[in-house]
Every structure is written in structure tokens, then in C-alpha cells.
Specification:
The chain has 206 residues and is α/β, with parallel strands linked by helices. It contains six helices and seven strands, in the order E-H-E-H-E-E-H-E-E-H-E-H-H. It has one domain: Alpha-Beta Complex (Maf protein), CATH 3.90.950. Strands 1, 2, 3, 4, 5, 6 and 7 form a seven-stranded mixed sheet that branches. The mean pLDDT is 97. Bound molecules: thymidine-5'-triphosphate.
Length: 206
């Protein structure tokens, strides 16, 4: 069946592509957007997730402006922020930063906010912020050291990836798991179908 709409995923995150694929959607194009992700002074983590997801989608829209191939396509973006209270734990650049982040998360609750932004073919902007509460067990220095050695913290908010070894750190989670991995599937599909994107006609037949 010919698909009615094209979808641009304004992201370079392999996790987001995997999650969309899991939902039976193959983006027509991947557009990683290099935006400044620095939080503003006293910006709430929720507001940051909202602002950055919006900026990624708007940057992709600006980049395809005037290109007839992508006229009438949907643009989807997301941004995931990990926070302890109002304290934002960004992507660690070095091992010692990642270690600090994990020490902070150890034995505590934290929040994961993912902002999703959808720009429709008629260029309406729709946003949704999804929250998940995560509790990590108390981590020993030995566990943290070994986790750091695995390298799985690289490129991930809060310096961990729940879909990998850090899944063993999670004592409790309230809310969406896929939200923590980087794209809340239930809410994303709801947003897409609500805006007329043909999600279910893309599902494979067995
Ligand atoms: C908390 C957590 C985050 N992550 C990832 C998801 C995101 O890729 C990343 C958060 O950074 P983001 O800035 O949201 O995304 P990104 O820079 O990786 O990709 P893009 O902006 O191009 O879409 O952390 C996991 O993979 N697992 C986790 O458990």
C-alpha cells in the first residue's frame, strides 16, 4: 500500500529510530539537528525538554524550507532530560562526570522528562512532555566503576541507558519505559494518529 505521508525524524539518536521501528514506522529521513542544548539559568527540566524538542523540530523545518520533496511531510523530534529535583544531569563528556552523575542517582528517585514535538503537513506545532519516575538502588563504587568501564553512559542523558546494563540499577519505575529510552511510544503514536498520520497502515503483516 502506498504510504500517504512522509515522516522526518529530526534526530541522530539510534534509540529513537529503534523505538519508531518498533512501532512499525520507518522514518523517510533522519535529520540530526545540532542545536545548543545548554539549559537557561534556573530553567525547569520539564521546560528544557519542551524547549529543546521544539527547537530540534523547528531547525529541521527551516532546513527543508523550499524543498519540494519534503513539502507536506511530518517532522518529529524529541529531547530527553534526566533530573534530580531541579538539578539537570546532562550527557557526561568524561568518565568522572558520568561517575558523579551515577553517584547522585544512587539510592534515589529521579525524573526523566521527554519532550516530543510534531510539526504537521500544514505546519501546526504539537508538543507533549512525558514524565517517568525512576528509582535506582544504592550503587556500590565497584558497580559504578564497572559501569563506567562499559562505556554505555556515553551520549545518554544522566549518563546511563536503562535499555542496557543500567537496567539492573532500576528498583522501581512509574510511568513509561520507552520515555526513559528516549521516545515515549504510546504518546508519540497518539500524537501522530491524532494529527492524521497513517501509523497503523504501516504495520507489517505476518
Ligand atoms: C535516560 C536515558 C537516555 N537515553 C538517551 C536517549 C537520547 O538519545 C539521549 C538524550 O539526549 P537527547 O539530547 O534527548 O538526544 P540525542 O542528542 O541523543 O539525539 P537527538 O537530539 O539527535 O535526537 O539519551 C537512553 O538511551 N537511555 C536512557 O535510559
Amino acid at each position: 500500500m502506498a504510504l500517504k505521508y512522509k515522516l522526518i525524524l529530526a534526530s541522530g539518536s539510534p534509540r529513537r529510530v529503534d523505538l519508531l521501528n518498533q512501532a512499525g514506522i520507518e522514518p523517510s529521513r533522519l535529520m540530526p539537528m545540532d542545536i545548543d542544548e545548554t539549559p537557561k539559568k534556573s530553567e525547569h527540566p520539564r521546560s528544557l525538554a519542551r524547549r529543546l524538542s521544539g527547537e530540534k523540530a523547528e531547525a529541521a523545518l527551516a532546513a527543508i524550507k523550499g524543498d519540494i520533496t519534503w513539502k507536506g511531510s511530518y517532522i518529529l523530534s524529541a529531547d530527553t532530560v534526566v533530573a534530580v529535583g531541579r538539578r539537570i544531569l546532562g550527557k557526561a563528556e568524561f568518565a568522572d562526570e558520568a561517575s558523579n552523575s551515577l553517584h547522585l542517582l544512587s539510592g534515589r528517585n529521579h525524573m526523566v522528562y521527554t519532550g516530543i514535538c510534531l510539526i504537521t503537513p500544514d505546519r501546526k506545532v504539537r508538543q507533549k512532555i512525558v514524565e517517568t519516575k525512576v528509582r535506582f538502588k544504592r550503587l556500590s563504587s565497584f558497580e559504578i566503576e564497572n559501569y563506567i568501564a562499559s562505556g554505555q553512559w556515553r551520549g545518554k542523558a544522566g549518563a546511563y541507558g536503562v535499555q542496557g546494563l543500567a537496567g539492573t540499577f532500576v528498583q522501581k519505575m512509574v510511568g513509561s519505559y520507552t520515555n526513559v529510552v528516549g521516545l515515549p511510544l504510546y504518546e508519540t503514536i497518539l500524537l501522530l494518529t491524532g494529527e492524521g498520520f497513517d501509523v497503523h497502515s504501516r504495520w507489517p503483516e505476518g
